Amino acid sequence: MNYTHDLIVIGAGSGGLGCAGFGSSIGLNVALIDKTAKAFGGDCLNYGCVPSKAILHVASLFAGGKEAEAFGLKTEGKADFKKVMEYVHSRQEVIRAHETPEYFAKEFGTETIVGTAAMTGRNEVSVNGRKLTAPNIVLATGSVPRKMEVPGIDQVKQWDNESVFWELDELPEHLLVVGGGPISCELSQAFTRLGSKVTLLVRGERLNEKDPEVMGDILARKLEEEGVDIRFNTEIGSFTNATTALLKDGGAAGAGNAGRTLEFTHLLVAIGRKVRTEGLGLEQGGVKVEKGKIVTDDRYRTTNSSVYAIGDAWGGEQFSHGAEFHNTQLWNNLISPIKKKHNLDKFAWVTFTDPEIATFGMTPKRFKEKGIDFETRELSLKDDDRAIAADFRGGHLIVYLSKGWWGGGKVLGGSLAAPAAGEMIQTLHYLQTEGKKYSALTNMIYPYPVASRIVQKGARQGASDMLTSGPVPKILRWAYRLVNR
Ligand SMILES: Cc1cc2nc3c(=O)[nH]c(=O)nc-3n(C[C@H](O)[C@H](O)[C@H](O)COP(=O)(O)OP(=O)(O)OC[C@H]3O[C@@H](n4cnc5c(N)ncnc54)[C@H](O)[C@@H]3O)c2cc1C
Ligand SMILES: NC(=O)c1ccc[n+]([C@@H]2O[C@H](COP(=O)([O-])OP(=O)(O)OC[C@H]3O[C@@H](n4cnc5c(N)ncnc54)[C@H](O)[C@@H]3O)[C@@H](O)[C@H]2O)c1
């Protein structure tokens, strides 16, 4: 069959840009389609990572100012929200410059098409009245925010990660956040620091349930210290008007909030995301959807073997680097006879709150599933000199290691709560990725007092335990006296 293109990619977010960019870079004839020119860059640029990190940056300046009051600085007032958003948008525009249709066409030779695409056959996509065909089609079409569905919700404006970064033009007086995942945590802290009163309703018992339990607790304590009113085991039963919620108990325990009302000025809903399946012509394309997700196998193939789904469209982990990871694997599978299967054992993620929570690799749940015996090394940062000097309390490191006389001590996973934890944990994640032992860090020289010395401390603790327990001290004493007669 003669095709118009080597590859068609629908969606120009983190997944689609990388996928089309690589294909074009090796000289393939690639079509990359997104709905509007501004949609290029996807959620990460327009409604996700970039604006959330930019607003968190401004919020951290406010937190620093407040902390400095203890030393005589006088600060007052709330953020000028218009200026804050001008800053956020200006950062987005800088990044947008290398994610536009024009940039991709010029830099990589990609055929970029602005229009809404739909599959019209197993190897066919229609856009702007044109029919494109290719041996492979990649759906990098992302996800959409899940909406609340409770009685009375029609009276309330549901702010989400799209509207909050583009439509909100004043600092909310009282922001009611519903969720408990990373969006809720990051934005609750950002808005509190900028001057909003924030109430965070969490249906379950913890924040960020995918992280080790202690990390959720550390984050909750910090958010509460800063003024976020967190209500765990609590849900909204209904809305009685545009600014009043009637609460009900959530979770297993319930928090006794049932029957209470809560007044707010703005409602931010961050209760997860749904894979985008509508309007894509999936049925015509022979792509099955089940329980709201595109059906895929562990090689990103849909039920049509010519069509793949990556990024949020894949329906698993939803991160920009998740989309990048899918891309690398997919390209391997499109070219190499040795196929790669999706596996999260070496994945990582960071919640960019203060403290940051960085988690990587395998978790106790995964060890249990795989029947792997493991050792846990845990360290508080409370005695760390740098943490003391910078008055940072509540830092915590967990490292999971393999067990066994010969193969023991390999880094399998872990988590860190600390300022810049996402940067600090990279060495540990490298060791895991390369299958190396934690003890590999023992002799590395960490300049005093870099914050990441804590990562080494855990490794040295193992070595020092070994040198100071059992028969070893006796042997060392003997050796010392022998050498120093
Ligand atoms: C508030 C927030 C903060 C986040 N922070 C982080 C973070 O710090 N780090 C991180 O790694 N991840 C973060 N994420 C997650 C990250 O943004 C997403 O996982 C990532 O953007 C998904 O990329 P994608 O390419 O799969 O989808 P998207 O970026 O959503 O791209 C899909 C594209 O497909 C297009 N499209 C859909 N249907 C069609 C059609 N029919 N025709 C043409 N085009 C179509 C859409 O217009 C869109 O541009 C955050 C998410 C949110 C919401
Ligand atoms: N720093 C980062 O990397 C970052 C930041 C923000 C978002 N993200 C990505 O975006 C995705 C979406 O984030 P999110 O925070 O919306 O989702 P999430 O799926 O991680 O968390 C959703 C939370 O909402 C709760 N929930 C679900 N339905 C509910 C309901 N009906 N009522 C009350 N609570 C309900 C869940 O229990 C959970 O705590 C994340 O999974 C993550 O992959 C990443």
From TrEMBL:
<keyword id="KW-0676">Redox-active center</keyword>
<feature type="binding site">
    <location>
        <position position="272"/>
    </location>
    <ligand>
        <name>NAD(+)</name>
    </ligand>
</feature>
<dbReference type="InterPro" id="IPR016156">
    <property type="entry name" value="FAD/NAD-linked_Rdtase_dimer_sf"/>
</dbReference>
<protein>
    <submittedName>
        <fullName>NAD(P)/FAD-dependent oxidoreductase</fullName>
    </submittedName>
</protein>
<keyword id="KW-0560">Oxidoreductase</keyword>
<feature type="binding site">
    <location>
        <begin position="141"/>
        <end position="143"/>
    </location>
    <ligand>
        <name>FAD</name>
    </ligand>
</feature>
<keyword id="KW-0285">Flavoprotein</keyword>
<feature type="binding site">
    <location>
        <position position="312"/>
    </location>
    <ligand>
        <name>FAD</name>
    </ligand>
</feature>
<feature type="disulfide bond" description="Redox-active">
    <location>
        <begin position="44"/>
        <end position="49"/>
    </location>
</feature>
<keyword id="KW-0547">Nucleotide-binding</keyword>
<feature type="binding site">
    <location>
        <position position="53"/>
    </location>
    <ligand>
        <name>FAD</name>
    </ligand>
</feature>
<feature type="domain" description="Pyridine nucleotide-disulphide oxidoreductase dimerisation">
    <location>
        <begin position="348"/>
        <end position="456"/>
    </location>
</feature>
<dbReference type="InterPro" id="IPR023753">
    <property type="entry name" value="FAD/NAD-binding_dom"/>
</dbReference>
<keyword id="KW-1015">Disulfide bond</keyword>
<dbReference type="GO" id="GO:0050660">
    <property type="term" value="F:flavin adenine dinucleotide binding"/>
</dbReference>
<dbReference type="InterPro" id="IPR001100">
    <property type="entry name" value="Pyr_nuc-diS_OxRdtase"/>
</dbReference>
<keyword id="KW-0520">NAD</keyword>
<dbReference type="InterPro" id="IPR036188">
    <property type="entry name" value="FAD/NAD-bd_sf"/>
</dbReference>
<comment type="similarity">
    <text>Belongs to the class-I pyridine nucleotide-disulfide oxidoreductase family.</text>
</comment>
<keyword id="KW-0274">FAD</keyword>
<dbReference type="GO" id="GO:0003955">
    <property type="term" value="F:NAD(P)H dehydrogenase (quinone) activity"/>
</dbReference>
<dbReference type="InterPro" id="IPR004099">
    <property type="entry name" value="Pyr_nucl-diS_OxRdtase_dimer"/>
</dbReference>
<dbReference type="GO" id="GO:0016668">
    <property type="term" value="F:oxidoreductase activity, acting on a sulfur group of donors, NAD(P) as acceptor"/>
</dbReference>
<feature type="binding site">
    <location>
        <begin position="179"/>
        <end position="186"/>
    </location>
    <ligand>
        <name>NAD(+)</name>
    </ligand>
</feature>
<feature type="domain" description="FAD/NAD(P)-binding">
    <location>
        <begin position="6"/>
        <end position="317"/>
    </location>
</feature>
<keyword id="KW-0521">NADP</keyword>
<dbReference type="Pfam" id="PF02852">
    <property type="entry name" value="Pyr_redox_dim"/>
</dbReference>
<dbReference type="InterPro" id="IPR012999">
    <property type="entry name" value="Pyr_OxRdtase_I_AS"/>
</dbReference>
<dbReference type="Pfam" id="PF07992">
    <property type="entry name" value="Pyr_redox_2"/>
</dbReference>
